[in-house]
Amino acid sequence: MFLVFLTAPGAALAQSPALDSLRELARQPQSDSSRVLLLCSISDQYWARRTDSAEVYARRALALARRTGYQHGEGEALNRLGAALRERNLARALELFQQSLRIAEVRHDVPLQAQNLRSIGIIYVYLRDQQQGLSYYFRALRLGRQLHDQRRVVLELSNIGLAYDLFNQLDSAQYYQQQAYALARQLHTPTNYILYGLGQVARKRGRLAEARGYYRRSIAESKALGHERSTNFAYVGLATLFQQQGRLDSSIYYARLGCQAAQHNGFLRGVLNASTLLTHDFKRRGPADSALKYQSLLLTMKDTLFGQEKVMRLQNINYQEQERARQAAADQAALKTRYRTYALVAGLVGLLALVLLLVRHRRQQQRANAALQTSLAELKSTQFQLVQREKMAFLGELTAGVAHELQNPLSFVKKFAEVSTDLVDEINGAQRLARDGRLEREILDGLKQNILNISQHGQRATAIIKGMLEHARTGSAPREATDLNALVAENLRLAYAGIRHQDPDFQATLSTHLAPGLPAVAVIAPDLGRVLLNLCTNAFYAVRQRQLAQPAPGYQPEVAVTTRLLAEAAEIRVRDNGTGIAEALKTKVFQPFFTTKPVGEGTGLGLSLSHDIISSGHGGTLAMESEEGQGTEFIITLPLRS
User: Fold this and answer.
1) I need a labelling partner for 112 at 20 to 30 A (CA). Which of 119, 226, 519, 635 fits?
2) Is residue 491 located within the same domain as residue 632?
3) Are residues 378 and 359 part of one domain?
4) What is the Cα gyration radius of the chain?
5) Rounded to an integer, what distance in angstroms lies between the CA atom of residue 404 and that of residue 357?
């Protein structure tokens, strides 16, 4: 993953004529404050070209600002020095940004506050702290809009988009990059970083031709601006695209160009990204000495960057703790000062009144605590009673449902058994009177049919009991990382094979839309497989029933399954174009023992069990959308983190 962030306001305008003009201006006599700001502008221009030169001019600006007591210039210079040092020393960079932010807050310098909030956000995004990084970015965006500084808003929007891309939240990344691009086009400002961000989103979504176009436009614009950093990003993005396509020669070519640009700029993370690609490509294609060369470079960059980041995480924790301690100490000191002031003003009378008030307050607090304890005890007792009543009500409802469902097949068994007994008595009586072969056959056929009915209803009672046992043992197995695409496809095939086994003449269209790159999700695979098999089987049953009931020549049964990656969850959809479900029945489909199938074809426990597996067993949701006569769709949502 490549880290790309915009920092210096003037970096996007880094051209040789502009830099030469600034250096020429620096040779002319100026006031100290003007010279400080001029040196900061030169540092901005160098930041996109060579970070070591940017550091030199930032240090000169800082020294002059401190020597002349120019606080605003000191804050600007601290920010520029932090940007130049960020690639080599994250801890020092954060310290400089915090110093600059404190100066801006004391002076109520809103533009400098926004600049430092963005810079601190970059540090936290580097450390993969999404919440902190985006928090600082959005604070900077709010200040930019408050200032009505549209150029600053473009930078903030693009940075937010790049951060979302880093955390693979592609919908958000595309949204903010498109906003940044539209505003930049209105302002006629550079779009080289934005084009790179749009290319990243397109590449990750598999739109490779579109991504290639964005990368090439970013390269062209970056070269025209003399911007080494964004050139590195676009080259590495293009190399990654060719690596995905298996075009290793092209991948190596652009990765080398990206590595050269990053080395020339002093951009260590750019060198790391490019050398990672080159190591992988040369290991696959050869020669081995080239792979070893770039692997050595890769390891050097990792030692330099990630060793510092580990220290940075500890310093970040210490910094937050120190801030909390400092705030607590300040609050305590303020409280002591307030009490001391009251004592001096009020004197002895005030002190006596305070004592009386404290005594009264303590007594009231004691009475209130006693009342609260009594209320809490009553609440716990009432809560326990309500829980017990709810449990008993649920148990009674469940028992009544089981009894009702078992009563039907058992009544049929009893009825057909009695009829069979009468038939046996009848045939015995008929044989004693006269032997009639035709009568015997009719009686025996009736007896056989009764026995089949007894077997059928006995199997239904067994299915009800089996379903209840499955309810009881759901969720007992451990969760394991599972390929959802494979699980969905397998159960769709099993369900289709099952319906074809019952009706060999049945044909249906199977559509699969499985999200590429869907991460493995920790689930109980056997339980989730039962849910998918049940939903797919119900879908095939619905389209078969519609085909039998309405044999229209243009109707083609179809069952479609779809997987999709959401922000914090994975989504599975099972859709059919079958009979659909009536509006009046939609609220009952997940109730135990409710079924729309004819008697004997379902127990009414499948969807109820599926709902329990998804909601209770996996912490997800199972929802349904249906239109009578048009079809039904079930939507499963599973959280990526349990």
Assistant:
1) 226
2) yes
3) yes
4) 37
5) 68
